[in-house]
């Protein structure tokens, strides 16, 4: 099985039968507003997992679903039912004013799971932190919560395939409920609150690694672009890697398009 990374929290997990896409969102750099997962990959995707409804995680989800006919798994708060039809927040809509139908969608509450083919997916508790973005001399702050678009539907995923377990924590602050998960692979954000962003920082992420006890760690969602800001959610990935390896755990630093075998 191989894992490929496409910045932010965007991944492809592949074996002989499956191509699982996590967060097929949008590159937010104003000079490269494109899909994180290349369009050439879309039609062969077999599962689409959405950790929440922010553009860098969700912008291309309906287009990937249309191209691939793959089932979509997301948090229950990203979805609603009207007239017997399941609708999700419009990936490119404004606020919560627009909802669109998805043909094959599985909204999960925390602790619920679904088996799709030979892939089992369980929703884990995550909590999206507040966003603080510098705009000229000001900062725009947004606090996730009921009726807010920021972080809507926030969940993590425990994915079991090929006898291996992969945990992806989306954009989350540290949660004690993760203790003892012990996955083969842990994907977690490190570009955190010390930098006025919305996830764990390096030190909280290290605490998460200690309580989760994975075999391998992939840090993500750091040193990424946000419109005209070239590098936001700053983090020292080499420091993180050194500290993880002191725990006797493997750590893979992945750049855009990098691939590892697990």
Tell me the strand order in the biggest sheet. 9-5-4-3-2-1-21
Record field, number of beta strands: 21
In CATH, the architecture is: 4-Layer Sandwich
Structural class computed from helices and strand pairing: mainly beta
Biggest sheet, in brief?
7 strands, mixed
Level-1 CATH class name: Alpha Beta
Listing every helix as H and every strand as E from the N terminus to the C terminus, the arrangement reads EEEEHHEEEEEEEEEEEEHEEEHEE
The amount of helix comes to: 10-25%
What is the CA–CA distance across the termini? 6 Å
Radius of gyration: 17 Å
CATH homologous superfamily designation:
Ribonuclease Z/Hydroxyacylglutathione hydrolase-like
Q: What general outline do the C-alpha atoms trace? A: globular
Tally the helices. 4
How many independent structural domains?
1
Protein name: MBL fold metallo-hydrolase
InterPro entries: Metallo-B-lactamas, RibonucZ/Hydroxyglut_hydro, UPF0173_UPF0282_UlaG_hydrolase
Domain Metallo-beta-lactamase: 7-221
Pfam families: Lactamase_B_3
């Amino acid at each position: 099985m191989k894992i490929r990374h496409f910045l932010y929290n965007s991944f492809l997990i592949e074996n002989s039968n499956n191509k699982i896409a996590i967060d097929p969102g949008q590159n937010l750099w104003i000079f490269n507003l494109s899909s994180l997962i290349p369009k050439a990959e879309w039609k062969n995707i077999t599962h689409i997992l959405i950790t929440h409804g922010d553009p860098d995680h969700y912008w291309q989800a309906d287009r990937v679903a249309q191209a691939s006919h793959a089932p979509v798994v997301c948090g229950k708060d990203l979805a609603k039912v009207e007239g017997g039809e399941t609708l999700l927040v419009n990936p490119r809509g404004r606020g919560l004013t627009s909802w669109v139908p998805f043909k094959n969608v599985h909204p999960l509450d925390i602790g619920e799971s679904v088996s799709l083919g030979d892939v089992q997916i369980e929703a884990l508790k995550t909590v999206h932190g507040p966003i603080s973005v510098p705009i000229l001399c000001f900062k725009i702050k947004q606090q996730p919560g009921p009726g807010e678009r920021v972080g809507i539907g926030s969940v993590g995923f425990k994915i079991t395939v090929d006898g291996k377990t992969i945990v992806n924590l989306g954009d989350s602050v540290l949660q004690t409920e993760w203790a003892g998960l012990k996955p083969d692979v842990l994907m977690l954000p490190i570009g955190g609150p010390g930098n006025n962003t919305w996830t764990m920082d390096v030190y909280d992420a290290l605490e998460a690694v200690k309580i989760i006890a994975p075999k391998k760690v992939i840090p993500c969602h750091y040193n990424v672009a946000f419109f005209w800001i070239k590098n936001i959610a700053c983090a020292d990935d080499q420091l993180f890697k050194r500290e993880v390896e002191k725990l006797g755990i493997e750590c893979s630093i992945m750049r855009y398009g990098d691939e590892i075998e697990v």
